[in-house]
Amino acid sequence: MRIDRTQAPTGPLFLQASLAEDSIDEESRAVHFLASDESVDRYGDIVKADWQLSPYKKNPVFLWNHDQSIPAIGNVSPIGVDNRRLMVTANFTDPGVNPFADQLFKLVKAKVIRAVSVGFTVDPSDVEMIRDAKDNWTGGYRYNNPELLELSLCNVPANAHALAVARSLGLSNGVISRAFVPDALVEQQRSKIFRELVGARVRLAKNYRPRSA
Description:
The protein is α+β, with helices and mostly antiparallel strands. It has one domain. It has helices spanning 54-57, 99-109, 160-168, 173-179, 184-205; strands spanning 3-5, 13-18, 24-25, 30-36, 46-47, 61-64, 74-82, 85-92, 115-121, 127-131, 137-143, 147-154.
């Protein structure tokens, strides 16, 4: 399972995890996944497992691609920290309740869409620079007391095979266009924004003062 940071702390942060092979329960329409652990990610960051879950549990919706403007595609239950890992079960809506959710679940079962994403936030005072044995900053951050904001099913870059499978499932062009990024230029723009956010994160870090133990 891969867990990546995809946005800097100028706003919500996101962790993306790949679905495991045995994580899908077709009968109950549930998707089980490890959303976060305390390992160092590819950016050198660590998200501590002292998750603040109470606010999210009051409205545990499962979203599509972090889009709050459309109806939720399901709910999340149970959710909790087990052995310093954030474990989550996302449940799709019952068949027929949300046609778009039905189509997305088909793509998940077909292993075309394989990613889930956790949106969270932290107080700047709870962000620490990670330092090595010589007290040099490694370039990474330790996020303490993260507060869960939302969980989402996320798309993957479009490719010929994925699109062929999606069409074989009888999905409409409208659903396919919403489920996949149709233009590589969109991805390039997102990469540009991400680089700018990383730069902002570095500038913010200069003002962070890690709390003493």
